[in-house]
Known about the structure:
- By secondary structure, the chain is α/β, with parallel strands linked by helices.
- It is built from 23 helices and 28 strands.
- The strands form 5 sheets. Strands 21-20-24-25-23-26-22 form a 7-stranded mixed sheet. It has a 6-stranded mixed sheet with strand order 6-7-8-3-9-10, sandwiched between helices. Strands 13-14-19-16-18-17 form a 6-stranded mixed β-barrel.
- The longest helix is centred in the C-terminal third of the chain and has 35 residues, at 598-632.
- Magnesium ion binds at residues 44-45.
Amino acid sequence: MLKLENVSKFYYNKGVITSGFTKVNLEFKIGEFVVITGESGSGKSTLLNVISGLDSYEEGEMYINGKETSHYTEKDFEDYRRKYIANIFQSFNLVNSYTVYQNVELVLLLNGYKKHEVKKKILEIIEQVGLTKFKNTKVSKLSGGQKQRVAIARAMVKDTPIIVADEPTGNLDSKSASEVIEILKKVAKDKLVIIVTHNIEQVERYATRIIKMNDGRIIENNEIKKIEEKEIKRSHYNNISIFNKYRLGFRNTFNIATKFLLLFIVFLFISSAMLAEYASFQMSEAEIVDTGYSIAFRDLSENRILINKNNRKFFTTDDYNKIKQIPNVDYIVEDDIFLDSGTALSRNDYSLYGYLQEISNFKGNIDVGRMPEKENEIILQIRKDHYLIKEQLNEVLNKTYSVLKTVGINAYSNEKIKDLIIVGIQYSYENNYDIKFYVSKSVLNDLRNQMNKNYSKMKVFFNNKYQQYAVEPNDKVKKGEAIVDDDFKYEYNYYRIIGKPLNIYVSNTYYNDELDLTISNTYTKYNFERRTGLENYDSNRYTIYINKDEYNSLYNKPSYQSSVFVKNVDEIDDTVNELEKLGLSAKKVTDFKINEGQTYQIIIKIIKVVVTIILIAVLFFISYLIIRIILKSRNIYYTTLRMLGATYKTVRRILDIELFINSTLSYGTLLLFSYLVKTNIIHLEYIAKLSNFLSLREYVLMYIILVLMSRLISRKFARKLFKNTAINTYKEEV
Ligand code: ADP
Ligand code: MG
């Protein structure tokens, strides 16, 4: 069955050649019980390894069933080992973290058996080696003798024609040793058993042939009992099923707690480092975008679209209803002028500057206080780290503030025009410290008048000339009338100006309006108070007083320009098109932006890509090194798998699955964590802010990168394991 002709084995080590054994001639038949003895270093193990196909030979020829093997490839030897050989080692070579049952099962799973069809066979064999009591015990808890019996069970279950045992009793006390030999003898009936031992007495009774080696040579080959060549029944095998690869991968993920945890932490580290790096780049990019500015608009939100009606008419409720039908429209700010011009609220000597919003556009929850219930109650949206919130909350909440009259864009007089009470606060997560005031629709309407006034030009047409006089509303003046300073008559060389027409024109970007008035009266320093009801006459102002309601009608207009805010910025261009289809002129506010940061943006983008790639590469190597150290403790396991018949692909796949499960669990934990932070269940402001810059797409992408990385690691690791012959890889580890 097995024949060696002048076979020699040499070791090449750093230019030095040592001989494992030289010119060995041997022939073995099925049914023999061969005992090999000899001093340490005489070449016994080397011979067994060559016979088992674990190691190569350099000279001569080894025949298996009459076939030459000198041309055999690694793959051929693998095949040979799976069909013919079962090994038993001095150091047992078991998987310590598996139970007895799992160890015996492993060899069958690796050779393509189904889990359910092997159960009976495994239990029978465990019974034969007397370990039924321990079948669910982890091997690490067994004594040496018990371990070797597991190894024998594993060798038996594979049912190969040849069993090779290298000093199987070397680590055992004499009682366990004789038990082991006993069992081996039972197994040996229809097989070829080759056993190396120092203890001839223990095996003498059973041996059919005793071989003695010295200094790499056979010095004695003593056939004690002639054996008739029996028919060989080589064991059949398949490759491991995919399902069983998953089973083993899953088992390996959890069977050693510390290894699981270490890998888990490494994956957690890689994925959080990558996500944080990516998010902070997104954030810095967003900050650069924010540095863009526009002369006309302050709110340069990416999701803002400015709309006007093409015929320069004002918006109606009907218009707004139509706009709300567009799915991507989040909300409409009807008086969008408030987005771009500030409002000052003052209390005592204390002023808050911010921007008005209609309360119906308020989203989310109140963080401090409550929702408004009355028209003059408002909500403040402000950053949590704003000094007002940190240090002066008492000065804000439930306090009455007055709106100051504006005297230009972002310029305020001391005149108070409306009282508002701050009843609720919502924290903002914007990058800037702008404050938003959420006010009721009616407050907004009132304030819109003065806002329109700020943006309008008013001219007075009198005596065929346009003049810029101050015009003020007055309770005492009747509709259609105006009263002017008596000195007007000198300006225009009129002695009678009462009864003369006077027109007032108001114009701004959006509309024109005019009043046709008649001068009904004049005032002087002496009758000023009587005519106007006001106190301080100012001789330099030439103020024209007109009816208060008429005055207000010049500015109390519906909106001519509104802003639409979209839900999904990626689809903003489609929304612009849809708005245009409604007969509106629509423009993204970002189109008005003058951005000096654009070159920086491109540079940042390039840096982002480069740094991300470098980071992934660096992380990959760091994690590969760490994971390799963690997995180093697993080298023996994988080499054992290999000796039991696992191919490169199998080892890679089992490791793949383990790393896949571990990295997925780790990534899942990270996602859960960032969800808890995002929903404020865990309070970590910076991380919450960072997580705002990650979308589902990025989370998925990072997961794919992580999985690919773990696959690359298992591939590299498996390749390294298979670079050497099985026995050398094993020797390096032990
Ligand atoms: P035994 O099992 O009889 O104690 P071995 O087969 O282990 O002996 O060793 C036989 C000879 O081969 C020894 O001289 C040993 O030094 C040498 N040898 C074994 N393995 C290697 C190796 N991997 N590299 C170099 N020399 C080796
Ligand atoms: Mg040895």
